[in-house]
Specification:
The protein has about 270 residues and is α+β, with helices and mostly antiparallel strands. Helix content is about 45%, strand content about 15%. The strands form three sheets. The chain has a five-stranded antiparallel beta sheet with strand order 1-2-3-5-4, sandwiched between helices. A three-stranded antiparallel beta sheet has the order 6-8-9, covered by helices on one side. A hairpin with an 8-residue loop joins strand 1 (about 25-30) and strand 2 (about 35-40).
Amino acid sequence: MTHKIDPALRRLLDTLQPAAEPAGCFLSLAGLTGGSGKVETAAGPLLARRQPPLPIPFVNRRREYRILKKLRGSGLTPQPLAVNARWLLLRWQPGATIDQQDFTQRQDEVLALLGCLHQQPLTGYRLRLLPLLQQYWQLCRERDLRWQRALRRLTRAGEPKPLRLAPIHMDVHPGNLIASQQALRLIDWEYAADGDVALEIAALCAADPAHRQSWITLYARQAGLPPRELETQVKRWQPWLRLLMASWYQLRAEQSGDAALRRLAAESWQSL
């Protein structure tokens, strides 16, 4: 069911098609999940995020819409406008993505965003990695033996008990940070949910492994956590993240046939 929205936005949602020109110009945007586009309308530019045509575990535009609505008072998220079974419409976020060097140099700003996010009320959508990994296993056709062994190990161990439960973004990297004249802003909230802040920092370290220690130290200081305790918890989450990333690459490589994703999947299995 489409949420109660402006009739013009409802009509736009109903006519949107990838690479089409509905009530405005649809400009496809690059991205690993694919299907997003900038839509020019009389009211200004909008971002249209498509529900993937093939299943990707945890990616659901209705859930994303609800989480963005819950977090809208924080000033951290783009404004959600409307959603239906196929599309999510957001207010366009002006600015440009940062590069890897800026990402490292602006650690304080990135961590300030995460610190604010982690202080927000829980969204009611808990992220649990074990069912997520099992879904990837079920959806993929090619299953590496190392994958099976790693999944069994993690199943026996069980997920780490959260150090601190909070709303987390779970996909913080340079391509998901927009710099404008005002400030940095986070985009692409499709994996956001309630989870361990140490899992968020582990994912952040995976995006910038060369500066892992400074991410952990600075966040611990900001959040009032013992640095050693945070580092230990980050280490607990690392095998879960490695398997999640390898599983994601494998599924998306199979769905898209993309050679670069196949290479990344192969490299990920080797790293296990």
